[in-house]
Write a structure and sequence with these properties.
Number of strands: 0
Structural class: mainly alpha
Strand content: under 5%
Protein name: DUF4296 domain-containing protein
Shape: elongated
Keywords: Membrane, Transmembrane, Transmembrane helix
Radius of gyration: 26 Å
Pfam families: DUF4296 (PF14129)
Order of helices and strands: HHHHHH
InterPro entries: DUF4296 (IPR025381)
Oligomer: single chain
Length: about 130
Amino acid sequence: MEINHQQVMKKLIFIFVLMCLFSCNEYIDKPKNLIDKTKMSEIIADLAINDQVIYLYPGTNLESGTRFILKSHQVKNEDFIASYRYYIVKQKMKGIVDDAQEIIIKKDPKSEKKIKGDIKVENLELPKNKVERQ
């Protein structure tokens, strides 16, 4: 009884490929109470605006503002966190954030330059070299 190493290797490779195909699952399961993308964009936009309030009014409680936003959208904290994780893992968060930026621009058109990064810094002076070349 002679063992053919090529046949053994082919069978092992075939078994390995089958195991890889059957073991491929999604990294994360879809949450029961998944927040739809449009609502998630609205919440993200409101949270971004709430975050800016801290700069205007130092000492403001960011956590209470976050709770208020989630309550006003009728979303539980756990559902928001699970949906956020799901969209991050599925790589769908960029579209949601882009929609949130558009919502912010509709609420405050002046914010478009800051969001899009078109603000030019005036009177920008580059540091001068201490040793000038001759």
